[in-house]
Amino acid sequence: MKFRMLGSGTSTGVPRIGNDWGECDPLEPRNRRSRVSIIVENDAGQRILVDTSTDLRAQLLANDIGKVDAVFWTHDHADHCHGIDDLRVMRYDRSNPLPGFGSSKTCANLRRRFDYIFEGQHGYPTLMSLKNIEETRLVAGFSFDHVEMPHGPVTSTGFRFEADGKSIVYATDFSEITPAMLKCFDRADILVVDCLRRRPHPTHAHLDMAIDLARRAKVRHAVLTHMDKSMDYRSLCAEVPDHVTVGFDGLEMAA
């Protein structure tokens, strides 16, 4: 079991429009961050895509990914779902819609915003099905668990995927650590974790919170993601403990 980090940046990416690199060294290629999304893959080659980021087409091309077996959404904020239309080509050689999953609130908002994806339109077939994550625990060769995480005034869904005796957790866009999160993430092999910046933020985890979650959940290894222009890759690598990896676009890691 492994994951591929398609994107590791915050909602505006790095650099921001205007070629604004902030504190990130523009000569370090791992500082160039597209919007967050990951692929989780089991030993049989089945793949789950988590979030359809605004940069999805470029990410799939860069990582030579032509198909996935299911899609999960953490929530419906633009940087996590507005690349959904790039999944159209994955419907072409399928006899049925590509399966998608999210919380009841996320599903409702996605159906409202992208009705043509889930209902078909003007003679075009339905591209995706959409189910509440409460309805199943086994998808495309993976078992999974989930937890709703505080994300400022709203929530985001954290996922724990298990296959081949290993576990990978994806926990992005949270602003508080809850007992339910600790229970869901307990002793995971890999925790891919929200880490916007060093200073606290009202809707996202900062560096100390991300490391604290990894410690309290007793995970084997943590990987930082959703980083803004203040988080220079090499500087961060020198700061974090040995069991923490600074994520970057294209990073692949086995559980």
From TrEMBL:
<dbReference type="Pfam" id="PF12706">
    <property type="entry name" value="Lactamase_B_2"/>
</dbReference>
<dbReference type="InterPro" id="IPR001279">
    <property type="entry name" value="Metallo-B-lactamas"/>
</dbReference>
<protein>
    <submittedName>
        <fullName>Phosphoribosyl 1,2-cyclic phosphodiesterase</fullName>
    </submittedName>
</protein>
<dbReference type="InterPro" id="IPR036866">
    <property type="entry name" value="RibonucZ/Hydroxyglut_hydro"/>
</dbReference>
<feature type="domain" description="Metallo-beta-lactamase">
    <location>
        <begin position="34"/>
        <end position="226"/>
    </location>
</feature>
